[in-house]
């Protein structure tokens, strides 16, 4: 016999269960999207704040937008194999795709105006693994945390409060060292003459399973020629790409990879703090830049130099930056690849 009186109640229970599931799903979505905590720093917000006042350049990287791609090799000495079991540190020569770039979201910025220059690398090894890295020529980062990096961009863009930067500097005194570097470090005449520093700390694991915290730098073999402000301006807006193309046509350009090993107690979670000069360093190998490649539609275009793409034998440390960078680079990558129709595949706006 069917109990007719129980039907509306069971309907109600089913509807309530469905509603509960929907509420949980919408809640989870809203939480993930940051709607429940508008103050939470999301990768999308991090990327939005990098845009210049005129808006982002569609199709381009949301930072380090101007650059020039290259290919070459990483010729390992084998000396870092004691530190990391990654194949790229075993004696050998491994293919590299890389990019020289300027720390600006504007692909048309003048080379003379860019204080920060960068070097990005992807090294591939026969075991199928890859190492990706993106470094800059500053000896330390301006701020200690990803949140402070976001707050810095906001302060720089704040048109309403003339004291925004003063207030930021008071709350983040570490930026003083970067300010001194930015106003006093010489500009060299070439990407080939710059030293590029990884700044973030990573952990190397060797074949015995021993972990050590390291940072790395690529030190140029070319002797630096320092330019005065006037000389820099006289070189023109796009001299860096033309210069490196000319040099590489003449001869391969080289950098030594120096791995620096932290002592116990060194600040591993804060890239604004350089480690003392006397730390143990290992010459891991040589980056050899052999060919300049097209930047528009060249081999770097669809590459995301995500600093968390690491082979076995290397992993992230307690430094919060690589994870924050990875999330932001991915947002930038997704946006720029979705904007293919706006990307100047050839011609105006596409730098060489
Ligand atoms: C939280 C801090 C940071 C944020 C939010 C950030 C953001 C970004 C974004 C959005 C891109 C463009 C990625 C793409 O579209 O492929 C980029 C590129 C780059 N960044 Fe960062 N970055 C941060 C920290 C750093 C640090 C610490 C370094 C160096 C030590 C660095 C060096 C570079 C370089 C060299 C590139 C160019 C990569 C390429 O050639 O594709 N960044 N950054």
Descriptive overview:
The protein has 352 residues and is α+β, with helices and mostly antiparallel strands. The protein folds into two domains: 1-40; 41-342, Catalase HpII,  Chain A, domain 1 (Beta Barrel), CATH 2.40.180. Helices cover 28% and strands 23% of the residues. It has helices at 7-33, 43-48, 146-157, 164-171, 175-184, 229-234, 239-250, 321-338, and strands at 66-76, 92-102, 117-124, 130-136, 187-188, 196-197, 202-205, 211-220, 226-227, 253-261, 281-293, 314-316. It is globular. Protoporphyrin IX containing FE (HEM) binds next to helix 2, strand 2, strand 3, strand 4 and helix 3. Residues 46-47, 50, 61-64, 67, 99, 101, 118, 120, 134-136, 141, 146, 149, 198-200, 271, 304-305, 321, 324-325, 328-329, 332-333, 336 line the site of protoporphyrin IX containing FE.
Poorly predicted runs? none
CATH topology of the largest domain: Catalase HpII,  Chain A, domain 1
Mind describing the biggest β-sheet?
10 strands, antiparallel
Estimated share of beta-strand residues: 15-25%
What fraction, in percent, of the residue positions are helical? 25-40%
- The mean pLDDT is 94
- Helix/strand-derived category reads alpha+beta
Shape annotation = globular
Which ligands are bound? protoporphyrin IX containing FE
Radius of gyration (Å): 24 Å
* CATH level-1 class of the largest domain: Mainly Beta
InterPro entries: Catalase (IPR018028), Catalase_core (IPR011614), Catalase_sf (IPR020835), Catalase_SrpA-type_pred (IPR024168)
EC number: 1.11.1.-
Domain Catalase core: 17-352
Transmembrane segments: 12-36
